[in-house]
Fold this sequence. Notes:
The protein is α/β, with parallel strands linked by helices and about 375 residues long. About 25% of the residues lie in helices and about 25% in strands. The chain has one domain (about 1-25, about 55-370).
Amino acid sequence: MKYNALDRRNFLKMSLMGGAALAMPWSANRTMAAAEPAAPGGRGRGRGSPQGAPAAPPLSYADTQPSRVSLAAGEDRADIAFQALKPFSKEVATAIGNKRVVIKPNLLETSSQLAATDAKNLEGILEFLKSIGKDGNVLITESPAMGKAQVGYVNYGYDKLAAKYGVKLAELDEDEIETIWCYSEKDLHPHPCRVGKTLLDPNSFIISAAKLKTHDRVIATLSLKNIILGSAIKRAGSERAEGGYLGDSDKPTMHGGGVRGINFNLAVLAQRLHPHLAVIDGYEGMEGQGPGHGTPVNSRVCVASLDWLAADRVGIELMGIDFATIGYLNYSANMGLGQADLAKIEIVGPALKDYIKTYKLPGGMDKMLVWMKPVA
Protein backbone atom coordinates (compact mmCIF):
# COMPACT_ATOMS: atom_id res chain seq x y z
CA MET A 1 0.00 0.00 0.00
CA LYS A 2 1.31 3.45 -0.88
CA TYR A 3 1.60 6.35 1.56
CA ASN A 4 1.33 8.95 -1.18
CA ALA A 5 4.83 9.45 -2.66
CA LEU A 6 6.57 7.18 -0.14
CA ASP A 7 6.22 3.43 -0.15
CA ARG A 8 5.33 1.77 3.13
CA ARG A 9 8.82 0.40 3.82
CA ASN A 10 10.56 3.73 3.29
CA PHE A 11 7.86 5.64 5.14
CA LEU A 12 8.19 3.45 8.22
CA LYS A 13 11.99 3.58 8.00
CA MET A 14 11.88 7.39 7.92
CA SER A 15 9.32 7.42 10.74
CA LEU A 16 11.62 5.43 12.99
CA MET A 17 14.51 7.75 12.15
CA GLY A 18 12.71 11.08 12.36
CA GLY A 19 10.31 10.23 15.16
CA ALA A 20 12.24 7.95 17.48
CA ALA A 21 11.34 10.10 20.46
CA LEU A 22 7.67 10.25 19.56
CA ALA A 23 6.45 6.74 20.23
CA MET A 24 3.50 7.87 22.31
CA PRO A 25 0.20 7.69 20.35
CA TRP A 26 -1.93 10.82 20.52
CA SER A 27 -5.14 9.08 21.48
CA ALA A 28 -6.25 5.65 22.60
CA ASN A 29 -9.16 6.00 20.20
CA ARG A 30 -6.90 6.21 17.15
CA THR A 31 -4.87 3.46 15.51
CA MET A 32 -1.72 3.52 13.46
CA ALA A 33 -2.79 0.43 11.53
CA ALA A 34 -3.31 1.07 7.82
CA ALA A 35 -6.61 0.39 6.10
CA GLU A 36 -7.57 -0.35 2.51
CA PRO A 37 -7.41 2.70 0.22
CA ALA A 38 -10.50 4.89 0.38
CA ALA A 39 -11.16 8.13 -1.44
CA PRO A 40 -11.75 11.20 0.74
CA GLY A 41 -15.08 12.95 0.45
CA GLY A 42 -15.63 16.36 -1.08
CA ARG A 43 -12.23 17.64 -2.11
CA GLY A 44 -12.22 21.35 -2.82
CA ARG A 45 -11.96 22.19 -6.51
CA GLY A 46 -11.73 25.68 -7.93
CA ARG A 47 -9.24 28.26 -9.08
CA GLY A 48 -7.36 27.60 -5.82
CA SER A 49 -6.42 24.12 -7.05
CA PRO A 50 -3.06 24.27 -8.82
CA GLN A 51 -3.13 24.11 -12.57
CA GLY A 52 -1.02 21.34 -14.05
CA ALA A 53 -0.40 19.73 -10.65
CA PRO A 54 0.72 16.11 -10.72
CA ALA A 55 -2.05 13.60 -10.21
CA ALA A 56 -2.52 12.98 -6.51
CA PRO A 57 -1.60 9.48 -5.36
CA PRO A 58 -4.47 7.40 -3.92
CA LEU A 59 -5.24 8.32 -0.33
CA SER A 60 -5.72 5.69 2.34
CA TYR A 61 -7.12 6.19 5.81
CA ALA A 62 -6.72 4.33 9.05
CA ASP A 63 -9.82 3.12 10.84
CA THR A 64 -10.63 6.46 12.41
CA GLN A 65 -13.95 7.31 14.00
CA PRO A 66 -16.40 9.88 12.61
CA SER A 67 -15.74 13.36 13.99
CA ARG A 68 -17.69 16.54 14.67
CA VAL A 69 -16.60 19.96 13.50
CA SER A 70 -18.48 23.11 14.43
CA LEU A 71 -18.78 25.97 11.97
CA ALA A 72 -20.03 29.42 12.94
CA ALA A 73 -20.41 32.52 10.79
CA GLY A 74 -21.22 36.15 11.48
CA GLU A 75 -19.98 39.70 11.81
CA ASP A 76 -18.79 39.52 15.44
CA ARG A 77 -15.37 37.87 15.63
CA ALA A 78 -15.51 37.04 19.34
CA ASP A 79 -19.08 35.75 19.13
CA ILE A 80 -18.46 33.34 16.25
CA ALA A 81 -15.53 31.84 18.18
CA PHE A 82 -17.82 31.38 21.19
CA GLN A 83 -20.63 29.92 19.05
CA ALA A 84 -18.24 27.52 17.29
CA LEU A 85 -17.09 26.18 20.65
CA LYS A 86 -20.49 25.98 22.33
CA PRO A 87 -21.50 22.53 20.90
CA PHE A 88 -18.45 21.02 22.66
CA SER A 89 -19.12 22.47 26.12
CA LYS A 90 -19.50 19.17 27.98
CA GLU A 91 -16.73 17.38 26.14
CA VAL A 92 -14.23 20.21 26.63
CA ALA A 93 -15.05 20.61 30.32
CA THR A 94 -14.53 16.88 30.85
CA ALA A 95 -11.30 16.83 28.83
CA ILE A 96 -9.84 19.76 30.77
CA GLY A 97 -10.69 18.38 34.18
CA ASN A 98 -8.02 19.74 36.53
CA LYS A 99 -5.50 20.50 33.79
CA ARG A 100 -4.07 23.90 33.03
CA VAL A 101 -5.47 25.40 29.83
CA VAL A 102 -2.74 26.53 27.44
CA ILE A 103 -3.78 28.71 24.52
CA LYS A 104 -1.24 28.89 21.69
CA PRO A 105 -1.98 31.81 19.33
CA ASN A 106 -0.29 32.31 15.98
CA LEU A 107 2.15 35.21 16.34
CA LEU A 108 4.30 34.73 13.29
CA GLU A 109 4.83 38.48 13.34
CA THR A 110 4.66 40.78 16.36
CA SER A 111 3.57 43.86 14.42
CA SER A 112 1.37 42.59 11.56
CA GLN A 113 -2.17 41.88 12.71
CA LEU A 114 -3.22 40.03 9.56
CA ALA A 115 -0.48 37.45 10.20
CA ALA A 116 -1.43 37.02 13.87
CA THR A 117 -4.30 35.71 15.98
CA ASP A 118 -6.70 38.54 16.76
CA ALA A 119 -7.49 39.39 20.39
CA LYS A 120 -11.20 39.18 19.58
CA ASN A 121 -10.81 35.52 18.67
CA LEU A 122 -9.06 34.91 22.00
CA GLU A 123 -11.84 36.80 23.77
CA GLY A 124 -14.41 34.39 22.33
CA ILE A 125 -12.32 31.42 23.52
CA LEU A 126 -11.93 32.91 27.01
CA GLU A 127 -15.65 33.65 27.26
CA PHE A 128 -16.32 30.03 26.34
CA LEU A 129 -13.92 28.78 29.02
CA LYS A 130 -15.64 31.06 31.52
CA SER A 131 -19.04 29.68 30.52
CA ILE A 132 -17.93 26.11 31.35
CA GLY A 133 -16.11 27.10 34.55
CA LYS A 134 -12.62 26.45 33.20
CA ASP A 135 -11.20 29.99 33.23
CA GLY A 136 -9.29 29.77 36.52
CA ASN A 137 -5.97 28.44 35.24
CA VAL A 138 -5.30 29.72 31.73
CA LEU A 139 -1.96 30.48 30.10
CA ILE A 140 -1.30 32.12 26.72
CA THR A 141 2.17 31.32 25.39
CA GLU A 142 4.00 31.71 22.08
CA SER A 143 7.39 31.83 20.37
CA PRO A 144 7.18 34.20 17.38
CA ALA A 145 9.35 33.69 14.31
CA MET A 146 11.36 36.67 15.50
CA GLY A 147 11.30 38.94 18.51
CA LYS A 148 9.63 38.56 21.89
CA ALA A 149 6.05 37.41 22.31
CA GLN A 150 5.46 40.17 24.87
CA VAL A 151 5.89 42.76 22.11
CA GLY A 152 3.12 41.12 20.12
CA TYR A 153 0.95 40.77 23.23
CA VAL A 154 1.05 44.54 23.68
CA ASN A 155 0.72 45.40 19.99
CA TYR A 156 -2.33 43.19 19.55
CA GLY A 157 -4.03 44.00 22.86
CA TYR A 158 -3.50 40.64 24.56
CA ASP A 159 -2.28 42.45 27.69
CA LYS A 160 -5.68 44.11 28.13
CA LEU A 161 -7.39 40.78 27.55
CA ALA A 162 -5.18 39.10 30.14
CA ALA A 163 -6.03 41.76 32.70
CA LYS A 164 -9.76 41.38 32.01
CA TYR A 165 -9.83 37.57 32.30
CA GLY A 166 -6.99 36.94 34.76
CA VAL A 167 -4.92 35.12 32.17
CA LYS A 168 -1.13 34.70 32.38
CA LEU A 169 0.96 35.69 29.35
CA ALA A 170 4.23 33.81 28.91
CA GLU A 171 7.24 33.67 26.60
CA LEU A 172 7.53 30.12 25.26
CA ASP A 173 11.19 30.90 24.49
CA GLU A 174 11.76 31.14 28.26
CA ASP A 175 10.01 27.85 29.00
CA GLU A 176 11.71 24.69 30.22
CA ILE A 177 13.09 22.71 27.29
CA GLU A 178 12.34 19.20 26.07
CA THR A 179 14.28 17.75 23.15
CA ILE A 180 12.50 15.96 20.33
CA TRP A 181 13.94 14.69 17.05
CA CYS A 182 13.35 16.25 13.65
CA TYR A 183 14.18 14.78 10.24
CA SER A 184 16.24 16.71 7.67
CA GLU A 185 15.91 15.88 3.98
CA LYS A 186 19.37 17.35 3.40
CA ASP A 187 21.27 14.56 5.14
CA LEU A 188 18.52 12.02 5.97
CA HIS A 189 19.48 12.22 9.64
CA PRO A 190 17.50 12.98 12.80
CA HIS A 191 18.45 16.24 14.54
CA PRO A 192 17.72 17.39 18.10
CA CYS A 193 15.12 20.12 18.32
CA ARG A 194 14.29 22.03 21.50
CA VAL A 195 10.65 22.73 22.20
CA GLY A 196 8.78 24.46 25.00
CA LYS A 197 7.93 21.79 27.57
CA THR A 198 4.57 23.36 28.37
CA LEU A 199 3.18 22.16 25.04
CA LEU A 200 4.20 18.57 25.83
CA ASP A 201 3.11 18.56 29.47
CA PRO A 202 0.43 15.87 30.07
CA ASN A 203 -1.18 18.28 32.54
CA SER A 204 -1.70 20.89 29.80
CA PHE A 205 -4.88 21.08 27.72
CA ILE A 206 -3.67 22.68 24.49
CA ILE A 207 -5.88 25.00 22.47
CA SER A 208 -4.62 26.05 19.06
CA ALA A 209 -5.94 29.54 18.29
CA ALA A 210 -5.05 29.45 14.60
CA LYS A 211 -6.04 31.32 11.44
CA LEU A 212 -7.02 30.46 7.89
CA LYS A 213 -3.79 31.31 6.05
CA THR A 214 -1.95 30.18 2.97
CA HIS A 215 1.68 29.17 3.35
CA ASP A 216 4.63 29.46 0.99
CA ARG A 217 6.00 25.97 1.76
CA VAL A 218 3.08 23.73 2.69
CA ILE A 219 0.25 25.63 0.92
CA ALA A 220 -1.91 26.16 4.02
CA THR A 221 -1.30 26.65 7.75
CA LEU A 222 -4.04 25.84 10.24
CA SER A 223 -4.35 24.37 13.76
CA LEU A 224 -1.65 21.67 13.72
CA LYS A 225 1.09 23.70 12.11
CA ASN A 226 0.43 26.54 14.56
CA ILE A 227 1.28 24.23 17.45
CA ILE A 228 4.23 22.34 16.01
CA LEU A 229 6.29 25.02 14.29
CA GLY A 230 5.55 27.50 17.07
CA SER A 231 6.82 25.02 19.67
CA ALA A 232 10.47 25.20 18.54
CA ILE A 233 12.21 27.73 20.72
CA LYS A 234 14.80 30.38 20.11
CA ARG A 235 17.07 32.10 22.60
CA ALA A 236 18.12 35.71 23.03
CA GLY A 237 19.92 37.06 19.99
CA SER A 238 18.04 34.97 17.45
CA GLU A 239 16.89 37.06 14.52
CA ARG A 240 15.23 36.15 11.29
CA ALA A 241 17.38 36.82 8.24
CA GLU A 242 16.95 36.57 4.49
CA GLY A 243 16.48 32.88 3.76
CA GLY A 244 16.65 31.70 7.38
CA TYR A 245 17.62 32.54 10.95
CA LEU A 246 20.65 33.80 12.79
CA GLY A 247 21.53 32.98 16.34
CA ASP A 248 20.30 30.22 18.61
CA SER A 249 17.00 29.09 17.07
CA ASP A 250 15.66 25.59 16.44
CA LYS A 251 12.90 26.74 14.11
CA PRO A 252 14.95 26.05 10.94
CA THR A 253 15.69 22.54 12.21
CA MET A 254 11.99 21.79 12.53
CA HIS A 255 11.42 23.02 8.96
CA GLY A 256 13.28 19.91 7.82
CA GLY A 257 15.54 21.39 5.18
CA GLY A 258 12.91 21.58 2.45
CA VAL A 259 9.35 20.80 1.37
CA ARG A 260 9.62 17.06 1.95
CA GLY A 261 11.22 17.60 5.34
CA ILE A 262 8.69 20.06 6.69
CA ASN A 263 5.71 17.98 5.57
CA PHE A 264 7.22 14.84 7.07
CA ASN A 265 8.12 16.50 10.37
CA LEU A 266 4.67 18.00 10.80
CA ALA A 267 3.01 14.60 10.47
CA VAL A 268 5.49 12.60 12.55
CA LEU A 269 5.67 15.17 15.36
CA ALA A 270 1.85 15.34 15.41
CA GLN A 271 1.82 11.93 17.05
CA ARG A 272 2.72 13.69 20.27
CA LEU A 273 2.72 17.44 19.67
CA HIS A 274 -0.79 18.53 18.69
CA PRO A 275 -3.75 20.57 19.90
CA HIS A 276 -6.43 18.99 22.04
CA LEU A 277 -8.89 21.62 20.82
CA ALA A 278 -8.61 23.37 17.46
CA VAL A 279 -10.09 26.84 16.98
CA ILE A 280 -9.47 28.27 13.50
CA ASP A 281 -10.34 31.92 13.01
CA GLY A 282 -11.48 32.63 9.46
CA TYR A 283 -13.13 35.95 10.18
CA GLU A 284 -10.38 37.50 8.09
CA GLY A 285 -8.11 34.94 6.45
CA MET A 286 -4.93 35.41 4.46
CA GLU A 287 -4.41 34.42 0.82
CA GLY A 288 -1.47 34.74 -1.56
CA GLN A 289 2.01 34.90 -0.05
CA GLY A 290 1.18 33.61 3.40
CA PRO A 291 1.91 33.09 6.17
CA GLY A 292 3.24 36.62 6.62
CA HIS A 293 2.87 38.66 3.46
CA GLY A 294 -0.50 37.75 1.97
CA THR A 295 -3.67 39.77 1.55
CA PRO A 296 -6.95 39.60 3.51
CA VAL A 297 -10.01 37.49 2.68
CA ASN A 298 -13.27 38.26 4.45
CA SER A 299 -14.47 34.72 5.13
CA ARG A 300 -16.33 35.66 8.36
CA VAL A 301 -16.23 32.11 9.80
CA CYS A 302 -14.77 30.20 12.73
CA VAL A 303 -14.12 26.44 12.96
CA ALA A 304 -13.75 24.36 16.13
CA SER A 305 -13.24 20.68 16.89
CA LEU A 306 -11.71 18.28 19.39
CA ASP A 307 -10.28 16.49 16.34
CA TRP A 308 -7.60 18.81 15.00
CA LEU A 309 -7.27 16.96 11.69
CA ALA A 310 -11.00 17.17 11.02
CA ALA A 311 -10.88 20.90 11.82
CA ASP A 312 -7.96 21.44 9.45
CA ARG A 313 -9.73 19.37 6.78
CA VAL A 314 -12.77 21.65 6.98
CA GLY A 315 -10.47 24.69 6.97
CA ILE A 316 -8.86 23.50 3.74
CA GLU A 317 -12.31 23.11 2.21
CA LEU A 318 -13.34 26.61 3.30
CA MET A 319 -10.27 27.95 1.48
CA GLY A 320 -11.23 26.17 -1.75
CA ILE A 321 -7.96 24.22 -1.76
CA ASP A 322 -7.60 20.68 -3.07
CA PHE A 323 -6.92 18.60 0.04
CA ALA A 324 -4.80 16.15 -1.97
CA THR A 325 -2.12 18.86 -2.35
CA ILE A 326 -1.50 19.27 1.40
CA GLY A 327 1.30 16.85 2.20
CA TYR A 328 1.42 16.89 6.00
CA LEU A 329 -2.35 16.53 6.38
CA ASN A 330 -2.42 13.63 3.91
CA TYR A 331 0.37 11.93 5.85
CA SER A 332 -1.49 12.54 9.12
CA ALA A 333 -4.65 11.04 7.66
CA ASN A 334 -2.77 7.98 6.43
CA MET A 335 -1.28 7.56 9.92
CA GLY A 336 -4.71 7.58 11.53
CA LEU A 337 -4.15 10.77 13.54
CA GLY A 338 -7.67 12.05 12.98
CA GLN A 339 -10.54 12.13 10.53
CA ALA A 340 -9.92 13.66 7.10
CA ASP A 341 -12.82 12.20 5.12
CA LEU A 342 -15.55 14.83 4.75
CA ALA A 343 -18.10 12.04 4.42
CA LYS A 344 -17.23 11.04 8.00
CA ILE A 345 -17.18 14.56 9.44
CA GLU A 346 -20.40 15.91 10.89
CA ILE A 347 -20.61 19.66 10.36
CA VAL A 348 -22.49 21.35 13.19
CA GLY A 349 -23.82 24.72 12.04
CA PRO A 350 -24.52 26.24 8.63
CA ALA A 351 -23.85 24.41 5.37
CA LEU A 352 -20.14 24.25 4.59
CA LYS A 353 -20.72 24.85 0.88
CA ASP A 354 -22.21 28.28 1.58
CA TYR A 355 -18.94 29.61 3.04
CA ILE A 356 -16.30 28.23 0.70
CA LYS A 357 -14.09 30.92 -0.83
CA THR A 358 -11.28 30.15 -3.25
CA TYR A 359 -8.11 31.56 -1.72
CA LYS A 360 -5.35 32.69 -4.06
CA LEU A 361 -2.39 30.36 -3.52
CA PRO A 362 1.29 31.30 -3.11
CA GLY A 363 3.58 31.35 -6.10
CA GLY A 364 5.89 28.41 -6.76
CA MET A 365 3.30 25.67 -6.46
CA ASP A 366 5.47 23.28 -8.46
CA LYS A 367 8.09 23.40 -5.71
CA MET A 368 5.49 22.95 -2.95
CA LEU A 369 4.15 19.80 -4.62
CA VAL A 370 7.53 18.05 -4.74
CA TRP A 371 6.45 15.90 -1.78
CA MET A 372 4.17 14.03 -4.22
CA LYS A 373 7.09 12.88 -6.34
CA PRO A 374 9.46 9.96 -5.68
CA VAL A 375 12.77 10.82 -4.07
CA ALA A 376 15.47 10.80 -6.77
